[in-house]
Amino acid sequence: METFIQVTTTTETKEDAERIALALVEARLAACVQIVGPIESIYRWKGRIETAGEWLCLIKSREEHYGAIEQTILSLHPYETPEIVAFAMNGGSRDYLDWLRGQLAASCEE
User: Fold this and answer.
1) Is the pTM of this model over 0.90?
2) Distance of CA 76 to the CA centre of its chain
3) How many domains does the chain fold into?
4) Residues with Cβ < 8 Å from 55, sequence gap 6 or more?
């Protein structure tokens, strides 16, 4: 059965988010990438509490494309350890999911 996913990543700049989004959509690995921000992130890094303004990317795709999405993000992302997290979509409107399906490569080899 086909599983749709939403992958999230954060970037330091809007330009980094746009570069990643464009690469994923152009490669048909993502049907849509929404860029939200700036957001405030608070996290522990190398023993210290850090605060940073970031941009959140919400990437809509299929589970079979996750590996290629992760590799694309890693190749373009300036962070040493970028957030890359995937969530399965448990549902959605039929029209939206049909549209999403039509925007994605049929397989990872395309």
Assistant:
1) yes
2) 12
3) 1
4) 10, 11, 12, 13, 14, 16, 17, 35, 36, 37, 38, 39
Question: What CATH number has the domain bearing residue 78?
Answer: 3.30.70.120
Report the Cα–Cα distance between both ends of the chain, in Å, rounded: 20
Residue 67 included in any domain: yes
Q: Who contacts 102 (Cβ-Cβ below 8 Å, separation ≥6)? A: 31
Residue 110 lies in a domain: no
In one letter, which amino acid is 77? Answer: H
Residue 109 lies in a domain: no
Residue 70 placed within a domain: yes
Share of the chain above pLDDT 90, in %: 95
In terms of Cβ atoms closer than 10 Å to its own Cβ (0-12, 13-18, 19+), residue 20 is buried
Query: What is the extent of the structural domain holding 24?
Result: 4-103
Residue 31 to residue 27: CA distance in whole angstroms: 10
| Rounded CA separation 18/56 (Å) | 10
